[in-house]
Design goal:
two-stranded antiparallel ribbon; Dihydrofolate Reductase, subunit A; alpha/beta; globular
Length: about 210
């Protein structure tokens, strides 16, 4: 992961702790429940969201990114490599294939949906339960999944792209009563990256207070 002007790679923030997330098996689709138990499952994983967003909160148009920022793609790869990435069906189809070196989890209501090389589940609970044993897992989009995942996330890796663009998908508003900016690394446009951008990390305030 490199930034503009030959800067040293930004430090990758690793989980400070993992918080158990209680998932009720009764909320899982049939066939994914533990028929012999009604206990709650404990997922000891930090769930984070990762996205790139324009100044007007646009994250996409026609299921594609509205800019060309190779540094952001490298940033995404460095953070998510070796981890679970959770996405909606449209996001997976925009990628076209599972991303190498990661476990791709596709969430869809379509019970007949198949995605070669991926884990396909039919609820957010089931997707999160699949991440058991991973220190950090990433919600990577799209907009509907970000909205659903907001309450389950403790960290947000946000590339703030310094432009305003037209789009049809937006990142949800952050409640600054709940979220605190803990890191910002600014980069200028260069020959490979057409726009100025900041790599920003937000932590849920409850998580920051406990560290």
């Amino acid at each position: 992961m490199t930034g503009g002007h030959g800067e040293s790679p930004p430090k990758i923030m690793k989980p400070l702790f993992a918080t158990p997330v209680s998932l009720s098996p009764c909320s899982l689709p049939e066939g994914e429940r533990d028929a012999g138990s009604l206990r709650e499952f404990q997922v000891n994983t930090r769930f984070s969201m990762i996205a790139a967003m324009a100044q007007n909160r646009v994250i996409g148009i026609d299921n594609t990114l509205p800019w060309r920022l190779p540094a952001d793609l490298a940033h995404f790869k460095a953070l998510t490599m070796g981890h679970h990435i959770l996405m909606g069906r449209k996001t997976f189809e925009s990628l076209g294939k599972p991303l190498p070196g990661r476990t791709s989890i596709v969430i869809t209501r379509d019970r007949d949906y198949l995605a070669a090389g991926c884990v396909v589940v039919h609820s957010l609970d089931a997707a999160m339960r699949t991440c058991e044993g991973d220190e950090e897992a990433f919600f990577i989009g799209g907009a509907d999944l970000y909205r659903q995942a907001m309450d389950h996330s403790e960290r947000i890796y946000l590339t703030e792209v310094q432009t305003r663009v037209e789009g049809d998908a937006w990142f949800p508003e952050l409640d600054l009563q709940q979220w605190q900016e803990v890191s910002r690394i600014s980069h200028q446009a260069d020959e490979k990256n057409q726009l100025n951008y900041d790599f920003v990390v937000y932590e849920r305030k409850q998580a920051v207070e406990r560290t």
